Amino acid sequence: MIHDALKRAGHNLHAIPSPLPTPADVPPAPAMPVAPPVTTLPRSAARRRAPWPEMVALYYNIDALRTSDSPVVLQFVASRPGEGTSTVARAFASFAAGEDTSSVLLIDASCHGAQPRPAFGRAPPPSLVEIARAGDRIEAAIEPGRTPDLHEARLADHANSLLHTNGTAWTSVLEQARQRYRFTIVDSPAVSTNPDTVVLSRGCDGVVLVIEAESTRGPVVQATIETIERFGGKVLGTVLNKRRLYIPRWIYRRL
What we know:
Elements: H1 2-15, H2 53-65, E1 72-78, H3 85-99, E2 104-108, H4 128-134, E3 143-144, E4 150-154, H5 167-180, E5 183-187, H6 196-203, E6 206-212, H7 218-230, E7 235-241, H8 249-254
Parallel strand pairs: 1-5, 1-6, 2-4, 2-5, 6-7
Antiparallel strand pairs: 3-4
Helix pairs in contact: 2-3, 4-5
């Protein structure tokens, strides 16, 4: 009796269809939609930093002094170290490079006394003094600057190098700069610490004297101007740097 019951149960199990479908019964999976191609948008240009209003006024004041469209070699200098000459000179050169239709050359005449280190395994270019002594073209001493249309070169690797350089050769270097650049900016060390500065003044078209506000005394400024002019330089004007505003700037603009 038990044997007959088990036999009937087994027969019924064979009659029940399997709950798991066979591979032949599984319908094919729907095709995945193809993703559209990714469109790469162009990267927006870097925003140009707004120039100082005083720098804009300085640029157009100097440009108004020009009697023709001839190139200009402009020297920035101070009476003593620490008055911010390099900051003003670089800001002026960067603004001129963005405002003018041609490139601008910035010459670092600080003469730190240390040989520049190679960058990315590439030897640094020669200084302009080396170019002047060898009689070569200035292109070998020029490098791209930090901003577009701004080119840079260093004057020398040691202080007072111009005192031992042929004056005619140095004049030739400046003439080459005039042929290639509408503005050549010379960032010079202080007159009180470097005699090269007055040698440069003689070959430049104009000199801008940087003065630290509330620090440099009037007699010192006057003595610096007289020294530059005694050596053949032409002082175009002065820049009052590091000025403190004791009232809000917008009030100054309304005065």
